[in-house]
Amino acid sequence: MGTPSPPAAPSPPVPSTSRSARTATRSTPASRRSSTPVAGWRASRRATASARASSRTDGVHPDPWVDAVAVSWAPSPPPHPSTPPPPHHPSTTPEHHPRPERRTVTLEALLAEHAELEAKLADPSVHADQAGARKLGKRYAELTPIVRTARELEQARNDLEAARELAAEDSGFAAEVDELTLRIPKVEEKLTELLLPRDPHDGSDVVLEIKSGEGGEESALFAGDLLRMYLRYAERHGWKAEVLDGTDSDLGGFKDVTVAIKAKTDTPDGVWSRLKYEGGVHRVQRVPVTESQGRIHTSAAGVLVFPETEDVEIEIDENDLRVDVFRSSGKGGQSVNTTDSAVRITHLPTGIVVSCQNERSQLQNKARAMQVLQSRLQVLAEEKAQQEASDARRTQIRTVDRSERVRTYNFPESRISDHRVGYKAHNLDQVLDGDLDAVLDALAAADRAERLAGG
């Protein structure tokens, strides 16, 4: 007698019909007559093909999703002979943008971290520590787009394989094969961008300083225009802006002004991710209100932007501080010019000076000034730790000289020009009213392209 054959392995579970199966059923003439036997036959075939495509990833890992992640960076399979080749995408093809194996490991680690964070956030005891829960929530929000895109890529690849099998028997599915073949490289490119190293401060709030420079009173007026522009931009995005300190000029401008801008909710792309490009010398060309001959003058104002620290990450020795109190100045009101409520803090080792006079009491002004001081010292500590100029403030000004400008506001031509990326637009009135998204998008795109080229 022959040796009995071992029992057959159980077949893998058949997943539900994929999204592409539903779209393909709607896209064919026969399937639109859903009451006919042909429509049901096609839907059944499609579900079977999708199940076969999904089941091919089983057997390597106990969890099919882990296996799908492990192969997620494999090059896209070649198009079916019956379909035209997709357009060339140099940024996504393996020969032009190789994807080393280390990115697969990184992706798996991020997916595992996302699952771990999800489990922790579901535990009510974690939320007893609000600061810790907030950190977990921010990290979870950062990883969610990566996980969502990775799953989208896995689903699209399974759908493409199933569509190719059906297209071999029915040419009505060829259109979906073409659509998926074009879409997958775009999803791969999106995932590549999401896996690039992020600025650790992108979700942070910011402290923004504007200082008048060359141009005297006209420069101070322009500093006031810049302040209004940033306040309007914050209003458009639903952010909260608070002026911490400022020195008025004689004609209603600002010699210097400090403002804190905060997002109302925690998001991976916060205030810093948008306004970090604003640091530098901003130049204005216009006829000043003080000009009686109608001549165009060129003035400048400097903008400094740095992320606001959420927790005390550095220790400040009280012996290193000199605290001065003085009477707050302003147009009047309770506690103005009557009590020594304004506070000026000097950090002796670094010479950094911070003042605040907008709060009602001396204690509140001191606490706010300490928060700004901590933010400045945090940036300084990062610069020293990296032994190079801070990447976060690489576009910040050194002197408020109009020759070092990063952007020009030309009033006669209603033109705004950003000299770092060659951006130009003739909508100066809208920009000064807070419509900054176009120029900030151009700067973000250039930064992203630079990181892609360097990665």
UniProtKB/TrEMBL annotation:
Lineage: superkingdom: Bacteria
Residue numbers bearing the N5-methylglutamine modification: 334
The keyword Transport is annotated on this UniProt entry: no
UniProt xrefs under PROSITE patterns: RF_PROK_I
GO cellular component, one term: cytoplasm
Pfam family of the protein (one): RF-1
Domain Prokaryotic-type class I peptide chain release factors: 327-343
Modification after translation (UniProt): Methylated by PrmC. Methylation increases the termination efficiency of RF1.
Protein localization: Cytoplasm
Segments forming a coiled coil: 363-390
Biased composition, class Pro residues, residue ranges: 1-15, 75-89
Low complexity: bias regions: 16-37, 46-57
Chain positions covered by the region annotation Disordered: 1-101
A GO MF term: translation release factor activity, codon specific
Swiss-Prot/TrEMBL keywords: Coiled coil, Cytoplasm, Methylation, Protein biosynthesis
HAMAP family referenced in this protein's UniProt entry, alphabetically: Rel_fac_1 (MF_00093)
NCBIfam families: prfA (TIGR00019), PRK00591.1 (NF001859)
Family of the protein in this entry: Belongs to the prokaryotic/mitochondrial release factor family.
Described purpose of this protein according to its UniProt entry: Peptide chain release factor 1 directs the termination of translation in response to the peptide chain termination codons UAG and UAA.
Protein name (database record): Peptide chain release factor 1
